[in-house]
Amino acid sequence: MVIQQPSNQIKLTNVSLVRLKKGKKRFEIACYKNKVLEWRSGIETDLDNVLQIPSIFLNVSKGQTAPTSELQKAFGKDTTVDTIILEILRKGELQVGDKERSAQLERVHNEVVSIVASKLVDPRTKRVYTTGMIEKALDMLSSQAHNTAAQDKDAAAKSASGTATPTAAAAAEDGEAKPLAKPQREHTWTGVSATKSAKSQALEAMKALIAAQPIPVARARMRLRITCSTGVLKQAVKGPKAADGEPKAPGTVKDKIISYIEQVEHQDVVGNEWEVVGFVEPGAFKGLSDFVGSETKGQGRVEVLDMAVTHED
């Protein structure tokens, strides 16, 4: 016995949906997995390799295509279907399965850990940590952040139910009840997100590790070369104000440049040019670069020789 199948039936397999809400309606297109990202990055240019069906749906899983009237109402009467598909591809939200989402999250996580491991060192030995050590340290911070959030939630629930701590109750009796100030927790780490770039999350992770110090860490220093005309080295530079508000005795351009350098490797004068090579904390780089650019009036420059100086076993 031959089983008849509808000749016009298209079975959607290995599908990713791209959804866009426009004019109070949600429109969907059915695409092949991974092809949407390739198309958005410019690797894939053929839409036939991206779209499973060159149609616009209100609900792909139910096979409910979008009526022309709805498309015209949302996108305009003169807008073609191809133009609408391109807009959905560009601006729409990509829906992926649990496995793809987990794989993407793991990729971002590994990239974040790798970046952090390359930028942080043990401040005593200047040696880098393994990715495993960095991963464990971030897990500690994440657990602490989640525990703290749970405690804050419990405290808020007790406050809402009228259960006050003895301190708060005593203050209430004195007629001086005030809301308890929440301690500021800067640079907390709660884990990796698939919606943010790995670079920005790595920066957040580094700030959290340096602030909390679950293991001894510090930013790896930058190695710079600063060159400057000897004619401007002895020019006076106003120093910051002292504690009593009086300005400190002015230093020279050379003194100010040296103050930015944590460790001088060597310095020399060749002809009419002074050169110093040394190590600088990454946070001081912008201030040093701005100072050299403004005070030397084009007669000095800062070169980066190494973005992160580390010692590996």
From TrEMBL:
Its main location: cytoplasm. GO terms for cellular component: cytoplasm; nucleus. SUPFAM superfamilies: FYSH domain, Hypothetical protein AF0491, middle domain. Residues 149-195 are annotated as: Disordered. One of its GO terms (biological process) is cytosolic ribosome assembly. Gene3D superfamilies: 3.30.70.240, Ribosome maturation protein SBDS, N-terminal domain, SBDS protein C-terminal domain, subdomain 1. Keywords: Cytoplasm, Nucleus, Ribosome biogenesis. Pfam families: SBDS_C, SBDS_domain_II, SBDS_N. Residues 110-220 form the Ribosome maturation protein SDO1/SBDS central domain. Residues 14-101 form the Ribosome maturation protein SDO1/SBDS N-terminal domain. Residues 175-188 have a biased composition (Basic and acidic residues). It is found in: Cytoplasm; Nucleus. Residues 247-307 form the Ribosome maturation protein SDO1/SBDS C-terminal domain. Residues 157-172 have a biased composition (Low complexity). It comes from the Eukaryota. Associates with the 60S ribosomal subunit. PANTHER family: RIBOSOME MATURATION PROTEIN SBDS. Belongs to the SDO1/SBDS family. This is Ribosome maturation protein SDO1. It comes from Lasiosphaeris hirsuta.
